[in-house]
Amino acid sequence: MASSHTSLSAGIFAAIRGKRVSLAGRDPAGDRGDTVIASYNIHKCVGTDKRFDPGRIAEVIGEIDADIIALQEADQRFGERAGLLDLERLHRDCHLVSVPIAAFSSKGHGWHGNVLLLREGAVAKVHQLKLPGVEPRGALVVDLDLKAGPLRIIAAHFGLLRHSRARQAEAILTAIREAEERPTLLIGDLNEWRVGRRSALSLLSPVFDHSTTAVPSFPSRFPLLALDRVMGSPANLVTAVEVHNTPLARVASDHLPLKAFIDLRAALGDSGTARQAVSAIQP
Asked: What is the pTM of this model?
């Protein structure tokens, strides 16, 4: 338990100072891996100044310069559930394309507001997972074939209630158990600030360690809560995590983007550890 508090404290101070948390014994100034991943709750493109500005969100996405980025709250929640971003602009300016899904409406971008953008690589499989809970929530389970190797991205937005988050964590583990083995990232706004046994995310163990990547990203003007997460399995998949803390990002949304570096080649060399973690959750 003490180590969890230490990890969170280190993350808080790292976020305030604008530094990243390095994992797996990595030198912060050394090799960061082969792929850059990001997660960003864009708050329906409404900034901390209460202004709706999709163009500003697109600029922040350009600043992040990620190979893969998961967005939350990219659609209107009610009514037509129309998409709020200019996907053509993101393709033109950031070279990112949206992973194809069956959206709620012809005008929508995402699945329960979740959108996954990809710079290069092939989409092998997409599963739109409905998450249990009081609020309508979902996750995208996307198998990708990248230059560095196969990767599974689970892009999710968990609920506001702890009981719902616990059930949603269990649903994620079930999806992993039923899928073929490959290195896996769970990314998104998981709405959990606790670490240790009180955290609903502790149910993700032993597949994911929720405490080591707890870097505060909310609220964007002075981040104190680690609501947004990037977690990897096997444990050496994620090499470093940091918040993207720029003047524009601090006003564009109430969340700061989370940016992570992964070493897919190293993780593929440690596939035995991943098999052990998945086998530990077999019923």
From this structure: 0.87
